[in-house]
Amino acid sequence: MKTSFRLILALVGVVCSSVTAASSEAIEGLRQAMIDKDMQAFERVLDARAIALDEFSSNVRLYEIACASTTEVYAPFFDRLLAYGLDPSTEDPTSHPFDFSLLDCAQGRYNAVAFKKLLDAGARSDIYLCNPCVSRFPEPLVERVVDNPQMFMEVVKRRELTNAELISVGKKVERIYFHKIWQGQPLNEFYADYLRKYGINVTPKRKYGEE
Predict the structure, then answer these.
(1) Over the chain (211 residues), what is each successive 10-residue block's mean pLDDT?
(2) Closest residue by Cα to residue 61 from 72, 48, 47, 45
């Protein structure tokens, strides 16, 4: 009886190790297919269902693939992952302060199209980046996208910002000069006008020499 029980345990161990190996192989296949821009190979891995959707938020290698897919050149692969059912609010399992969430991945790669698609798919924009260090560096996502007004506007047209978010944006507008024009205004002045509508008065940072 003992021998049979040990045999069962051994067989279970073999099966588990095979599943782990297959999962690792699938992840590498997915990564390489995207690098090679081989959509057929990419879809074969996904269609085999060897990768569970929740693994993108728990497996660092899978999260890196999803994050990299927000780069403009990988747009078809990004679209395929969303169609596969990738959670648009997926966050980095290591809580790294950069590329913290898929929205942060898209903004860091200056990809407004991917950013919008994530929001359209229901991605949460009310997050604070780098959760473990929020008490020291409270940086809401909207503060990080301030230098990209197109992304900022995609957020605010979907919801109102909290007072804390507005204040955070205001501090950045006062601290950093953005060399951009938006809707006919220097970007800093545009944000100052926007914030005044919500009772937040700021003195926008001006270009060096104009202060």
Answers:
(1) 40 38 81 97 94 93 97 98 97 85 95 98 88 60 94 97 95 95 96 96 84 59
(2) 45
